[in-house]
Amino acid sequence: MQLRPYEPADATPVYEVHRRAFGGRPDEARIAARLAAAGRDPVSLVAVAGDAVVGHVIFSPVALDGPGAHLTMVGLGPIGVLPDHQNQGIGGRLIRRGLVDCRAAGYDAVVVLGAPEYYHRFGFERASDHRLANEYGVDDEFMVVSLGSPLSGAQATVRYASEFAGA
To answer: Which architecture, in CATH terms, is 2-164?
Structure first.
């Protein structure tokens, strides 16, 4: 299994990864495609087995409204792994490598909207504990991980890229 940066030639297989990973629903696949097409994918990684793309994760810039707007953050997701490659640690490897790459790119933190029992293992904490809200009004499932910058004074509302609307 190799992890490498997303390339434009990966567009079709990445779309299929997300579509199949989410039971045939195209929403996440469309979001990933729109983010890549708009250049809002500063960190985007694929997992490759042989010649096949079997997993993908994308991190996209988010906007902050409020006193914490001085922080630079990205949002994790969508992330997908082909069903026959799930439960093999591929998603975890993509996330860990993505967090390292986001830190290297100079981001202060990463936010995610997902299952706390899964994302806690990567250091994510409930964002509201750091006075971070989101445009969807979600609490427990909205989490943040610092990439080395203190999150004190991070009070803000996080807004995802427009490519997330109308999936």
So the answer is: 3-Layer(aba) Sandwich (3.40)
Under 8 Å between Cβ of 5 and 57: no
> By CB neighbour count within 10 A (0-12 exposed, 13-18 middle, 19+ buried), where does 157 fall?
middle
pTM of the predicted protein model: 0.95
Beta partners for 56? 46, 80
- Model pLDDT for residues 50-98, shown as the tens digit of each residue: 999 999 999 999 999 998 788 999 999 999 999 999 999 999 999 999 9
Nearest to 109 by CA among 68, 151, 161, 67: 151
The secondary element (H helix, E strand) that includes residue 146 is strand 142-146
**Torsion angle of C-alpha atoms 69, 159, 149, 106, degrees rounded to 10:** -100
Q: In the 8-state DSSP scheme, what is residue 151?
A: -
